[in-house]
Amino acid sequence: MPTPDPAGDLVPDLTAVVPAGGSGTRLWPLSRAASPKFLHDLTGSGRSLLQDTVERLRPLVGDRVLVVTGTRHADAVREQLPDLLPANLLVEPGPRDSMPAIGLAAAVLERRDPEAVLGSFAADHVIEQPEVFRERVHQAVRAAREGLLVTLGITPTRPATGFGYVRVGRALGVTGAPQVRHAEAFVEKPDAALAAEYVSSGTYLWNAGMFVVRAGTLLELLATRHPRMVQTLRRVAEDPSAIEELWGSLPRISIDHAVAEPAAAAGRVAVVPAPFGWDDVGDFSSLADLLPESAEHPGLRVLGPGHLVVDEGSTGLVAPRGGRTVVTLGLQDVVVVDTPDAVLVTTRQHCQDVKGLVETLRRTGREELT
User: CB 3.0-4.6 Å disulfide test: which of 9, 51, 61, 111 passes with 47?
Assistant: First the structure.
């Protein structure tokens, strides 16, 4: 187990749960169903997003990291995380959305330690200022010990329409956690005008899907509306060999819809404002914002070998991943992603539409590319 840092970050009753699923279709053709974005280095750090996530959590939890992933990605996760304890890789036979995945981890943790606190953090997000992140997780854990479901709400930097929001209420006065506040409601993705209103009000935070809660509390909250799911998850935790038989009976539902929204309405949810840099790397436009401008190619962000790019007068993002030279000439806000079997050429303005393009490929019989 890693030695805690001098600030005493290690939290003895906290286990990190890392759901590693999805296919990141807006980052096609880099991200594919068989090799989703969390397995890729998208920031130039030399580590995948999954590896960065686990390294960020190590000072808080040591080796108490549970990764939940699908069957087709389990070997890649093991390869990328060789220090992960074998019992801490939970493999889903098929995708059922975030609630079954996080719920299974909660049921496993509950059996190991009835007082265990879990912190759920996606495998494919980028977080800056890790020391601020750890301090806010500490506050969230203190509130979770009081029986609350706690979310880390990201301070908005723009009126984004691609994220859900949390409406922030009164301070809760949790000892040692001065920033913990009542979460009045979770709000769906707004339109542009409503998003601007949310941000200007100062009472809304982005919902980044980061939750801290006692494992038993999460299952208790889930059981209020989905008792059969809790029964099934506990059966699988007791007998892992039953997962193949039982997993398909679980509904496809997110943790937001299954637990967070109804629990907020019942006054059981707290929010910790999280003033650190955060990005879910949702598309190539957001990825371009994360990458530095190329010293060799001013105006361009380059993800991959810079010597494969030849440019004159262009701006945007180029990802030369196919081993070929990519030439751009006089294009503004261009996005070029070159892989061995597919090339994407679009603009930053249309990056959100890439998901629909992937659906078109599937519909037209080109599933081998997705």
Answer: 51
Helix or strand (DSSP H, E) at 125: none
Report percent pLDDT > 70 for the chain.
98
DSSP symbol at 31: S
> Count of alpha carbons within 13 Å of 357, Cβ hemisphere only?
19
Task: Enter the tokens of residue 124.
Answer: 């494919």
Question: If you write DSSP's letter for every residue of 324-352 in order, what string do you get?
Answer: S-EEEES-SSEEEEE-SS-EEEEEGGGGG
pLDDT value at residue 24: 87
User: What is the pLDDT averaged over residues 253-265?
Assistant: 96
CB atoms near residue 307 (< 10 Å) = 10
DSSP conformation letters of 35-74: B-GGGS--SSSSS-HHHHHHHHHHHHHTT-EEEEEEGGGH
Which residue, 55, 94, 58, 97, is CA-closest to 74?
94
SS (H, E, C) 134-183: HHHHHHHHHHHCCCCEEEEEECCCCCCCCCEEEEEEEECCECCECCCEEE
Rounded CA gap, 256 and 164, in Å?
10
Contacts of 320 (CB under 8 A, 6+ apart): 302, 304, 305, 308, 309, 326, 338
In tens, the pLDDT along 113-124 reads 999 999 999 999
Contact 281, 290 (CB under 8 A): yes
Q: Residue 354 and residue 358: Cα distance in Å, rounded?
A: 6
Question: pLDDT band for position 8 (50/70/90)?
Answer: low
| pLDDT recorded at residue 44 | 87
Q: Has residue 148 got a pLDDT over 70?
A: yes
Tokens of 77: 């996760």
Tens digit of each residue's pLDDT (9 = 90 or more) over 122-143: 999 999 999 999 999 999 999 9
Check if the beta carbon of residue 28 is closer than 8 Å to that of residue 357: yes
Three-class secondary structure of residue 7 per DSSP: coil
- Residue 115, classified by CB atoms within 10 Å of its CB into exposed (0-12), middle (13-18) or buried (19+), is exposed
